[in-house]
């Protein structure tokens, strides 16, 4: 059991405001006392204000834990010592409205002591506590899927890199097969349009990689996105340059024909 929640006062405790509850407490360790061995020291997740005008109590607290407002002086309580009401009964998992005796730690050097020094405490009264683990366990339906969605976007961008390669190899394979079947006109047409089709298809992984950049969090995902961008840009620029070169050759060849060379 990691801790408990103080849910209510079993009886009114002077100096403590019931409106400050509930408050969670983290178990630190068992600490023996002169009368019983099973006291438990716990640190509060948020401090309680214990209001008192008793100078003896105020004098035992460290200065940084003292405060004062319109309602008077108070001590900020960051730790408590609890023990079950019945000797032999222990704080346990799954407990609900379990009554315990509670004492406020006024002198916080108690956390360094081997056993309870009652002069550093202010006996408060009886409170009801719940095991906090039952409520701390996350519900499966509330599972955060943000990281999974981000990883999926990176993977989609990476997989899209093969699209221009499929277009290039597939186009030329079809052109070769048509050529072997003596369909030279169609073979030449497909071979001619395969490079520009490859260039256009490289835009898909490029856009997906750009969209996935903000979702890449791990080093591996960032490397995948950068690689996808580099490959897509290389195909786009290299394929574009090749298409321009082919068009230039064709234009020059056409001019030669027109000029009768």
What does this protein structure show overall?
The protein is α+β, with helices and mostly antiparallel strands and 261 residues long. 43% of the residues lie in helices and 25% in strands. α6 runs antiparallel to α7. It has two domains: 134 residues, no CATH class; 112 residues. It starts with a strand and ends with a helix. A six-stranded antiparallel beta barrel has the order 1-2-3-5-6-7. It contains seven helices and seven strands, in the order βββαββββαααααα. Keywords: Membrane, Transmembrane, Transmembrane helix.
What is this structure's SSE topology?
Blueprint: E1 3-9, E2 23-31, E3 39-51, H1 55-60, E4 66-69, E5 72-84, E6 98-105, E7 121-131, H2 133-136, H3 146-159, H4 162-180, H5 184-201, H6 203-212, H7 219-258
Antiparallel strand pairs: 1-2, 1-7, 2-3, 3-5, 4-5, 5-6, 6-7
The percent of residues in helical segments reads 40-55%
Low-confidence stretches: 134-147
The whole-number mean of residue pLDDT values reads 80
Give the number of helices.
7
Strand content: 15-25%
Please state how the strands of the largest beta sheet are arranged side by side: 1-2-3-5-6-7
Shape: rod-shaped
- Kindly state the number of beta strands: 7
The SSE string, one letter per element, is EEEHEEEEHHHHHH
Structural classification? alpha+beta
CA radius of gyration: 38 Å
Termini Cα gap = 94 Å
The biggest beta sheet is recorded as: 6 strands, antiparallel, barrel
- What is the count of distinct domains? 2
Transmembrane segments: 160-178, 184-207, 228-253
Keywords: Membrane, Transmembrane, Transmembrane helix
Region (Disordered): 135-155
Biased composition (Basic and acidic residues): 140-155
